[in-house]
Target: Adenine deaminase
Amino acid sequence: DQLRALLRQMPKAELHIHIEGSLEPELIFALAARNGVALAYASVEQLRAAYAFEDLQSFLDIYYAGASVLLKEQDFYDMTSAYLARAAADNVRHAEIFFDPQTHTARGVPMADVINGIHRACQDSPVSATLILSFLRHLSEEDAFATLEQALPHRDKFIGIGLDSSEVGNPPEKFARVFARCRELGFHLVAHAGEEGPPAYIETALDVLHVERIDHGVRCLEDAALTQRLARQQTALTVCPLSNTKLRVFDTMAEHNLLGLLDAGLLVTVNSDDPAYFGGYMNANFAAVFEALPLGLAHAQRLARNGFIAAFLPDEVKRRYL
Ligand code: ES4
Ligand code: ZN
Model:
């Protein structure tokens, strides 16, 4: 119908996408063959059948295994090109893309190959695309510092710093010093918080790390004072509806709190997170949430507009979309 057509056709900004989470099973198998990497699954179908997750950790185990086929600069280029082509088909005009260098440097892949491959694909795409280097929070702050050091020769190729991986037990304050350094260096700062972790992690992401956006953040509604603060400050939440249902943050899309977040006056955006694992790219996320919740045309326009408001883009560029 008309609303579904609008959802597809609206120009969108995607602010929460892990590039390693865009690796489709077909590309995992092609890269495994190209690089001589052995996989624990015999076929694309068997791998896809393993995508039944119970929580964040059960997903992350498979996500890191999938990323093990990425060895050469061209592999990172091909993965990123495939994502950007898919994003363009969903009318994504701007993407801010997370990458997890520690996943690759730990296997001996040079930092230069990771960053140059992803960055070159961004430059070759008609979609505006910028990069956010994300630290793995299950590793130490010392490891994050070493990663930052390795990445700094490439500082012109990424605009921000993020924090992802296993949330519970790895609070934002674990990374206070490395985020302080990144702030001095002038990077934009974001962190995953309040996905599986408690609202207190959203608070320390803001107060200790000084992040500008919260990735996920859906558990903020458990704390009324925090919700009011996020609304007053208009701190963006990069919400990922299909991710939240696949990882059982909400059991069904009808139980998702996206409308509650909007009604609380929050700057909510819709994003795909790990589209190859969670069942869809941007338009699939919009379609799923509009299917399950009583949302209309005004909500659609507000969500799309919020993506550009929350983007790390110059005001004169944003203005074209607002
Ligand atoms: C992630 Cl959904 C999610 N949460 C935390 N870390 C991640 N890395 C990739 N996807
Ligand atoms: Zn994420």
